[in-house]
């Protein structure tokens, strides 16, 4: 038995051993890890500034190795999805229970933040619903039927055949090995929402990115300017100035660590939002652009190898 098969066998045994056996619902170990890991990591990071730096450096490395060695062998693992849910819930609880009682946040500021969180949850939920296999199959089937009708009228070929699904699929529909279906206008499979992003749910995904960016970055600014010494940038816009005192109290340190984490996530989400708006402007998708880049790379490598062979010969 190979090393990868052994890892997968051990991990599947651990997954199947978890859950409420007497009930209808089961929760795998990969979905349970973030529920305990995210709060524990936050508490450890809140101890000292050195722990904060070490935690923010080592956590992505640990997650990468966990994904590379175990999670990638699991079909539709909910690890990253549960990490997303746990992180958002934890940051919301820290904000409402630790930051708001400091009486530095105006009611309307809190309302904007909560609206961003609720909007992100709602758009994320709609993204997953629209990405359901039945919904994706329905969207692909509808486009395929339209193409069949156009082919009958104009006498032109327009559909393609997916060798994996063994079905006819319209152009720009690509197969996702995780969702086990063809996705129209496929961008990529988003691990953090545990679903595919395509033409059927792209607008909801963009809405989720926008609301999440607002909630993460705005909430981070409100938190930092509440627990740190702020300064006025422009008008009523405040930015944190001195945060050296936050580690004297655990609750303030938790707020600060949560704010830093929120800011990092918000900037990453914002970059994804800008990236997708740029792809829409270009009239392409992330999957098509990746395929084009890969094809160009192979073509360049082929020309290079051909040139070397000619020189050698």
UniProtKB/TrEMBL annotation:
Keywords: Acyltransferase, Golgi apparatus, Lipoprotein, Membrane, Palmitate, Transferase, Transmembrane, Transmembrane helix. The chain crosses the membrane at residues 31-59, 79-103, 215-239, 259-282. One of its GO terms (cellular component) is Golgi apparatus. InterPro entries: Palmitoyltrfase_DHHC, PFA4/ZDH16/20/ERF2-like. GO terms for biological process: protein targeting to membrane. It catalyses: L-cysteinyl-[protein] + hexadecanoyl-CoA = S-hexadecanoyl-L-cysteinyl-[protein] + CoA. Its EC number is 2.3.1.225. Its main location: Golgi. It is a multi-pass membrane protein. It is found in: Golgi apparatus, trans-Golgi network membrane. One of its GO terms (molecular function) is protein-cysteine S-palmitoyltransferase activity. Residues 157-290 form the Palmitoyltransferase DHHC domain. It is an enzyme of class 2 (transferase). Belongs to the DHHC palmitoyltransferase family. The DHHC domain is required for palmitoyltransferase activity. This is Palmitoyltransferase. It comes from Cotesia congregata (Parasitoid wasp). The lineage of its organism: Eukaryota, Metazoa, Ecdysozoa, Arthropoda, Hexapoda.
């Amino acid at each position: 038995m190979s090393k990868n098969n052994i890892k997968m066998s051990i991990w599947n045994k651990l997954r199947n051993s978890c859950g409420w056996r007497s009930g209808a619902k089961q929760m795998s170990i990969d979905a349970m890890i973030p529920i305990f890991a995210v709060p524990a990591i936050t508490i450890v990071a809140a101890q000292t500034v050195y722990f904060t730096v070490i935690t923010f450096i080592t956590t992505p490395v640990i997650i990468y190795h966990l994904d590379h060695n175990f999670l990638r062998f699991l079909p539709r693992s909910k690890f990253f999805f549960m990490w997303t849910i746990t992180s958002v819930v934890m940051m919301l609880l820290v904000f409402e229970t630790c930051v708001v009682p400091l009486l530095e946040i105006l009611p309307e500021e809190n309302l904007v933040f909560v609206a961003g969180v609720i909007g992100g949850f709602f758009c994320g939920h709609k993204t997953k619903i629209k990405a359901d296999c039945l919904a994706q199959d329905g969207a692909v089937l509808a486009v395929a039927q339209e193409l069949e009708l156009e082919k009958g009228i104009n006498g032109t070929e327009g559909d393609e055949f997916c060798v994996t699904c063994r079905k006819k699929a319209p152009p720009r529909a690509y197969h996702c090995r995780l969702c086990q279906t063809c996705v129209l206008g496929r961008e990529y499979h988003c691990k953090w929402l545990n679903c595919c992003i395509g033409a059927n749910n792209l607008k909801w995904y963009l809405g989720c990115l926008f609301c999440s960016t607002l909630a993460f970055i705005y909430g981070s600014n409100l938190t930092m300017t509440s627990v740190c010494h702020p300064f006025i940038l422009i008008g009523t816009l405040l930015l944190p100035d001195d945060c050296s005192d936050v580690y004297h109290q655990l609750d303030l340190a938790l707020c600060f660590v949560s704010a830093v984490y929120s800011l990092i996530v918000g900037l990453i989400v914002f970059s994804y939002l800008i990236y997708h708006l740029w792809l829409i402007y270009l009239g392409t998708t992330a999957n098509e652009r990746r395929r084009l880049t890969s094809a160009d790379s192979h073509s360049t490598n082929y020309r290079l190898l051909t040139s070397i062979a000619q020189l050698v010969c």
